[in-house]
Amino acid sequence: MKALTVSSLFAIVVVSLTFLASGGSYLDFLLPGGLPVGNALAAIGLACAAAIPVALSHPGSLLRAVAMGTLAAAATWLPVSIALAGNLSLNFGGVRGSIWLGFNLVLNIAVLFTLTWALVSHLVARRRARARSSAVESALRR
Predict the structure, then answer these.
(1) How far apart are CA 105 and CA 27, in angstroms?
(2) In whole angstroms, what is the distance from residue 94 CA to residue 86 CA?
(3) Is the Cα torsion angle 13, 17, 18, 19 positive or negative in sign?
């Protein structure tokens, strides 16, 4: 189940980033309520990227606590952005634009750091499990 969750979250991130990178005119299409599709895709992609470390980490670990904090911060991206911009299109100016850029920079670095930490931790744990498994098999053959 964990692999399916992580794969699904990763697929959503890739699709979101692909659509955003394409720069298509459909990103400006307004959803009911007036939110542009591109802003919704950015929020969904960021939240899914921040959710991957939560899915990969063990309950009660430091990584899980940091990942949960990062996910909570990622979930606030759209409301904070709208509050700073004062509009759903996220058009910024002046000091608020600088604050928003700083917020984005810190949040994206936190998400990337936590994602990297989770992936490395997961790969190390898998390698250790394989090493233990092969050591047990070797001992049983003797």
Answers:
(1) 22
(2) 13
(3) positive
Please state the pTM of the whole predicted model: 0.88
Three-state DSSP class for residue 36 = strand
Q: Which residues of the chain register pLDDT less than 50?
A: none
Q: What is the CA radius of gyration of the chain?
A: 19
CA distance 5 to 105: 27
- CB 113, CB 105: distance < 8 Å: no
State both tokens at 51. Answer: 């959710």
67 and 53 in contact (C-beta within 8 Å)? yes
pLDDT of residue 130: 83
H-state helical runs in 23-93: 37-56, 62-75, 77-85
Distance, in Å, from the CA atom of 40 to the CA atom of 98, rounded to the nearest integer, reads: 21
